[in-house]
């Protein structure tokens, strides 16, 4: 059975409302690493390892990346990697994926005059950071970023990228339509918390509206993500409502019911393409994984 420290760290990470899904995954890996390092012998058995990893899924059940990264752990374990080396190998795999995504995304955004985004994709941020390091400031694209209420991830992204040398247009979420009409972005780029087998994407609330406005004005919408976010098989997906205090911290009158979803589904027909470690594709990449493996079902059932 996992330790109390492990459970406490999992509970703490559940409250993280700002970090992107890949950042959540990397923090979860460090929690797993710490748990294994404290007692490697406890997790020398595959079933004990799976039991501990399944607890990690509860951090954010809507994030397919958490399920898939745990499959990476078990894959490496199955081929004989020592349990205390698993986290290191998983991080290496994710770093390789990130590098490939950057290589595929940077040539696209470097040709744009204005790139529009919503929320804060750590994958997009890393590409913007690398582009800023490799380019003259006057050649960087202008960025249009929305607040992304209620957690204001967009505000964090705007603060980060302006320090990299980008010019930033920062707007309230309700200004999406006006921003597209007046600022005329070349592309809209969003991240993904989950990519479904049919190409639909789950991401921060507000992305669906932005995709609709972009579609209406013939602005391409690209999803940037590694295939770590790809669901390997269809499973029920529930959109949860988070704390009402985000929207109405105090003195809420009785009779007002608050619905505070953080995520929503963006239909595949609104998405122009997917930029992953495999390159650009109008359809999601066909990732060859043996779905009949028992431990994949353990993570998905």
Would you give an account of this structure?
- This protein has 301 residues and is α/β, with parallel strands linked by helices.
- The chain has 2 domains: 103 residues, Four Helix Bundle (Hemerythrin (Met), subunit A), CATH 1.20.120; 183 residues, Rossmann fold (3-Layer(aba) Sandwich).
- It contains 10 helices and 10 strands.
- Strands 3-2-1-4-7-9-10 form a 7-stranded mixed β-sheet, sandwiched between helices. Strands 5-6-8 form a 3-stranded antiparallel β-sheet, with helices on one face.
- Helix 6 links the parallel strand 1 and strand 2.
- Helix 1 packs antiparallel against helix 2, helix 4 packs across helix 5 and helix 4 runs antiparallel to helix 10.
Which characteristics define this entry?
single chain, 301 residues, alpha/beta, Rossmann fold, seven-stranded mixed beta sheet, three-stranded antiparallel beta sheet, 43% helix
What does this entry show, briefly?
The chain has helices at 4-14, 21-38, 46-57, 64-78, 86-109, 122-134, 153-162, 176-183, 207-216, 294-300; strands at 114-117, 142-146, 168-171, 187-190, 194-195, 201-204, 221-224, 263-266, 273-276, 279-281. With 301 residues, it is an alpha/beta fold. It folds into two domains: 4-95 and 290-300, Four Helix Bundle (Hemerythrin (Met), subunit A), CATH 1.20.120; 99-281, 3-Layer(aba) Sandwich (Rossmann fold).
| CATH secondary-structure class of the largest domain | Alpha Beta
CATH homologous superfamily label of the largest domain: Translation initiation factor eif-2b, domain 2
Distance from first to last alpha carbon: 21 Å
CA-based gyration radius: 20 Å
Helix count from the secondary structure assignment: 10
Structural class: alpha/beta
Order of helices and strands: HHHHHEHEHEHEEEHEEEEH
- If you consult CATH, what is the topology of the largest domain? Rossmann fold
Q: Give the overall shape.
A: globular
Per DSSP E runs of 2 or more residues, the count of β-strands stands at: 10
- Name the average pLDDT: 89
As laid out across the biggest beta sheet, the strand order is 3-2-1-4-7-9-10
| Major sheet summary line | 7 strands, mixed
Percentage of helical residues? 40-55%
Strand content: 5-15%
Q: How many domains in all? A: 2
């Amino acid at each position: 059975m996992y330790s109390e420290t492990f459970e406490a760290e999992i509970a703490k990470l559940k409250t993280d409302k700002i970090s992107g899904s890949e950042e959540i995954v990397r923090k979860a890996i460090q929690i797993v690493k710490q748990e294994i390092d404290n007692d490697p012998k406890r997790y020398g058995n595959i079933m004990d390892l799976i039991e501990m990893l399944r607890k990690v899924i509860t951090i954010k059940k809507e994030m397919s990346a958490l399920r898939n990264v745990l499959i990476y752990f078990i894959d490496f374990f199955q081929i004989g990697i020592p349990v205390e080396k698993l986290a290191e190998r998983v991080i290496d795999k994710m770093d390789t994926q990130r590098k490939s995504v950057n290589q595929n995304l940077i040539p696209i955004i470097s040709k744009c005059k204005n790139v529009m985004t919503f929320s804060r994709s750590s994958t997009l941020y890393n590409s913007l950071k690398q582009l800023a390091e490799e380019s003259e400031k006057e050649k960087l694209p202008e960025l249009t970023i929305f607040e992304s209420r209620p957690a204001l991830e967009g505000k964090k992204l705007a603060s980060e990228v302006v320090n990299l040398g980008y010019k930033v247009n920062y707007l309230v979420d309700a200004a999406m339509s006006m921003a597209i009409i007046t600022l005329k972005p070349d592309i809209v780029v969003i991240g993904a918390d989950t990519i479904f087998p049919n190409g639909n994407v789950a991401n921060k609330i507000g992305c669906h509206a932005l995709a609709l406005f972009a579609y209406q004005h013939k602005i391409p919408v690209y999803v940037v993500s590694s295939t770590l976010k790809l669901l390997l098989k269809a499973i029920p997906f529930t959109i949860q409502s988070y704390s009402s205090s985000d929207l109405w911290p105090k003195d809420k009158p009785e009779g007002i019911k608050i619905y505070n979803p953080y995520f929503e589904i963006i239909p595949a027909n609104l998405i122009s393409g997917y930029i992953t470690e495999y390159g650009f594709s109008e359809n999601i990449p066909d990732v060859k994984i043996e779905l009949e493996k028992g431990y994949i079902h353990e993570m998905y059932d």
